[in-house]
Amino acid sequence: MGPFAPHQLRELLPDAAWLRVVHPPEAAETAERGAAGPAEGIDQALDFYQRSYLTSDILVKVDRASMLHSLEVRAPFLDTALAEFVNGLPPHFKYHRGTTKRLLKQAVVASGLLPKWLAQRRKKGFGIPVARWMRVELHDYFRHALVEQFPDSLGMFDRRAILRLWEEHNRREVNRYKELWALFMLAQWADHRFQRRVPTELLNRSGRQPALARPPGELDRAGQPISPSATMTVPADRRRSAS
């Protein structure tokens, strides 16, 4: 539930006693106001990133994608000596007045490796347009999954809080795609775990259930379950050679 602020978690899970221990209201309010020391907060955030998101998500994806195409990818900024040196620097070298990677950006500009406009350009990732899908192309599909038919197995979630997130996003008051996407994926897991099929009227115009929500090998284009034998068909010539 990483995309959610502590107060959002308390709204979504009002009966979760563990939240009051992990995220006490007074501590959450202090953190959200930024009252904690900025230096300590930056170091804690970077440590968490390096121990979890970097190693368990980013590097895993790079490794899988590169090895699929027989590429050996290296991350020079993760050189042990360099990483230890940078981790030991004061936080203001890493983040200052809204500028991330401050020292690195200054170094590449001063050395002429990159022009200033490029070094200071807003970060561009490889994200998919989930925010727009929720408002336009797949609006009905996402609404069905998140608002109308949120899994009963996730009854600990307050449906009113989910509806507020959905309406804020679709009224363009706040971009809530990260929170809604996390809830959507959780709902997909619950549906898959308990085998609830998506209604065929919510299939897109091509007649296919959106690939992002269809477990591989589980449903055909009409949204019907595919038998295990249909997904494991072996050509006759290969069966003969195998025997």
Describe the fold and architecture.
- The chain has 13 helices and 2 strands; from the N terminus they run αααααββαααααααα.
- With 243 residues, the chain is mainly α.
- β1 and β2 form a beta hairpin.
Q: For the report, how would you describe the main beta sheet?
A: 2 strands, antiparallel
Query: In oligomeric terms, what are we looking at?
Result: single chain
How many helix segments?
13
Helix content class: 40-55%
The radius of gyration over CA amounts to: 23 Å
Termini separation (Å)?
49 Å
Broad shape: elongated
Low-confidence runs: 205-209, 211-222, 226-243
The sequence of SSEs as H and E is: HHHHHEEHHHHHHHH
Strand content: under 5%
Mean residue pLDDT: 78
List the strand order in the largest sheet.
1-2
Sheet/helix structural class: mainly alpha
Number-wise, the strands total 2
Q: Could you list some keywords that capture this structure?
A:
single chain, 243 residues, mainly alpha, two-stranded antiparallel sheet, 13 helices, 2 strands, 2% strand, elongated, disordered C terminus
Provide a brief overview of the structure:
This protein is mainly α and 243 residues long. Helices cover 54% and strands 2% of the residues. The chain is elongated and about 55 Å long.
